[in-house]
Amino acid sequence: MQKNNLRRLLRTVEALSDLGPEMTAEREFPQTARAMVSALLQAGGAREAVLFTFSDKPSLLTSIAAEGFALMPEPAVIPLLPKHVHALTSARGPIALHSGSYDVFLSANGNVAPELFKCIAPLKVAGKLVGLVALGRREGDALYEDDELDALELLCNYVALTVNNHALSQTLAQRVGENLRLLASLHGFYDTALEAFAAAIDVKHVNIHGHSLRVGRYAGAIGEAMGMDPADVAALRSAGYLHDIGKVAVDKRLFGKPTALDPDEFREMADHTVVGHQIVSGVQFPWPRIPEIVRWHHERGDGSGYPDGLVMEDVPMPVRIIGLADTFDAMTSQRPYREPMSVGGTLSEIVHLAPQKFDPNAVQGLLVQIRRDAVGSSRTPFLADRTAVNIAPTDIDQLAANLQHKLSHGRLYLT
Ligand SMILES: [Fe+2]
User: What is the per-residue burial (b if ≥16 Cβ within 10 Å, else e) of 326-342?
Assistant: First the structure.
């Protein structure tokens, strides 16, 4: 018996370690769902398994992946009555089913007969039903015993979180996408409407309040200093407002974390580029470059960025400008784990990292705008009243000269 237990435990640990990379990998959810079903089969020693998500109003189980069943509709759908939802929500862990218990947990009104299932495990997050795992027959039609139920329970905690995360990001992304489309049709995307949107993106944590608005303003001003025409400047401003829209799907907790993010958390945060791209791709903007700006604003020219690891030639100029404005604002802002950097310190760091990470022309544009602030010649100050300009115009000129020198120095080697 002990040997069996050990084997079961090993099998579950094995399934979990297989599943770890699956659950955090940036891949399509159906693929992750299939991997979870395989792991569940293994942990429960089953031949047949199906994974359902649960949706409310009307209460419905919908299958997202299945393995082993000879006849399983795609999707299998099981409507639930309130008594079923109640029974599944109050169940403590997986349940081996018998002829008298089907009706307690499942209705027969769906397109699949509950009798196909021999064991079910409700998936819950914070006491709420988010899905269901149903296992069919085992090898040799053996019964599901405590060992299998324990192993299943362990695995189901992870599966529940993954299913729930996916459902959350789906609905959030959908809702935000719909709101944006609505705005586009109602207002023709006036600056003010987008400004309101920008403010809503940054409500997640006090440290990022106003970030999107500032990035939009900075980017527009950099474009203007580079001599771009007003339409392109307006596009840059709007792109800045929306660049972090994918953050609506990121766990709020990560924004206030006092230490650096661990690799899984970093991946979740980094995904805001891809999620944002999905959201804005469904919207007709007057400026066609918005989706690529949202996707690529963390690309860094030397290939060190994400999500696609692009090099400078592949990064379009508007994306480079947003990337610079984003970095400038992040460095001059408070973070849970560090104090804001001064404007002077930030600028010399940025010049230090150009041209490898930042476009030198965009950096010159940034220097021009801050110089205007420093000599008091801007009608609308670039930095507004947020950050003191603690750098003298002559120091800015020195930075501009350094940047120029780096470039011509580089060119000497190139020719
Ligand atoms: Fe971002």
Answer: bbbbbbbbebeeeeebb
